[in-house]
Amino acid sequence: MVNCETCGKEFATEAALAQHLKDKHGLSGPQNVVKPSESKERRRETRTKPRSLRKRNRHPVAIGLVAVAVVVGLGLYLVVAPSFTSPPFACIAAQNYYIHIHPYIQIWVDGKNVTIPGNIGITLSGGCLEPIHTHDASGILHIELSQAEANKTWTLGDFFSIWNYTCSLQPAQCPTVNGTARPVVFDQTNILGFTADTSHKVTLLVDGVQSSAGASLNLEQYDYCSAAISNTPPCSPTAGGPPSWKCSSTGQCGVYPYTTGNKIIIEFTTA
Description:
Low-confidence stretches: 70-83
Number of domains: 2
Radius of gyration: 40 Å
Oligomer: single chain
Distance between the termini: 108 Å
Helix content: 25-40%
Shape: elongated
Strand content: 15-25%
Largest sheet: 5 strands, mixed
Structural class: alpha+beta
């Protein structure tokens, strides 16, 4: 058996093939005789080669698409990853608070007051309210605790942890000094990245008296706002009224056991 190289039809003899080539394809003279097995292999190669080329040509495109996806994915991760981080303390819900007080804090660096922004501790578009938070830039902190939360001593260090978390999500709540963003940090030798050395010191003052408590200072003992000054700054307009202490579920409150009018100051000054 022999095959027509042009159309693949099989013939019993070469003479029959020659007649077919003359009649059907207008060809004359000797032609290459292709055996059936060879014809199938040639057709297979003809089909395979373009497909292989197409596959090879797709590789750079596929690699480019993967690279773009990786870059976009990394960008999205860097934007949204902080929002997946849990806040330092469980978010509080609207309730009759067992404790509701308002300490007053100021930070001074080389004689310049550093603004403590509003909305510290208020994150996720207002969906999370931390036990310590701010509503304005007055320096008044709002400590609002349920009876369960009141079992913990809430400290100056807790406030800085909440501030640091808020800053990581909301740059507007980050501290700035002379227009430059500063890290949210406080300890015995460091305030907002300003570190004590041979010529500088970090000092914590409570009502003008130096304190060694540092970040462990118990904020619950140092309320500022009282009924007498609730209508004047810095208590007004967000922290009006006397402190609430050990309130029951019916809203009946005990007497605040500490004094009001206290002021907490952190200073970075020349030694």
